[in-house]
Design goal:
mainly alpha; 70% helix; 174 residues
């Protein structure tokens, strides 16, 4: 029993991230962002999932968010959301996509939901925006994990770096 406690208790309070733990954490964060942002981005751009489509989104951006020209901001928001979702699904340029998502959600708070409060029964509050910002900042901080195209590209860049042999970069001996 004492041996179990020596291993279990320190593990519960350990603050250094492990590679496997980071990979496991990145998966649900990416899935949640892809699901939500893909839904909203496709709705803005194409009217998918009973979304407003580009015309209604343009009017909303101009009239409610006071962003003009509304069409430019509608396309920009839709592309950030849907494009960010696709980038995160593939794990490609994940940190950049996540930063764009943070900017998109900050703009949503500043222009629309911030005045409604954190949670509002009458209109959307900024609770979802804050949640998406927090999730996106996780990706900015830890990346997409080893199950991503970013990881594949990083491995190839390391193996092609001057002065590195492919055996040394893969952990083998030269």
């Amino acid at each position: 029993m004492a041996a179990t406690n020596r291993g279990l208790v320190p593990a519960l309070f350990r603050t250094e991230p492990s590679e496997a733990g980071t990979d496991v954490a990145a998966i649900p964060v990416r899935i949640a962002l892809v699901w939500i942002l893909g839904y909203y981005g496709a709705g803005k751009l194409f009217g998918a999932f009973h979304g407003p489509g580009i015309h209604q989104t343009s009017l909303f951006m101009a009239q409610t968010a006071h962003l003009r020209p509304g069409g430019v901001f509608a396309v920009l928001a839709g592309c950030i959301e849907l494009g960010g979702a696709l980038a995160l699904a593939l794990g490609l340029v994940s940190r950049l996509a996540a930063l764009a998502i943070v900017g998109d959600q900050v703009m949503a708070i500043l222009t629309v939901t911030g005045s409604h409060g954190l949670v509002s029964s009458a209109r959307a509050g900024y609770d979802l925006n804050l949640t998406l910002i927090a999730l996106a900042l996780v990706v900015v901080g830890i990346g997409a994990g080893r199950l991503s195209l970013d990881a594949v590209i990083a491995r190839r860049l390391r193996s092609n770096a001057p002065g590195t042999s492919s055996a040394a970069s893969s952990g083998g001996t030269t």
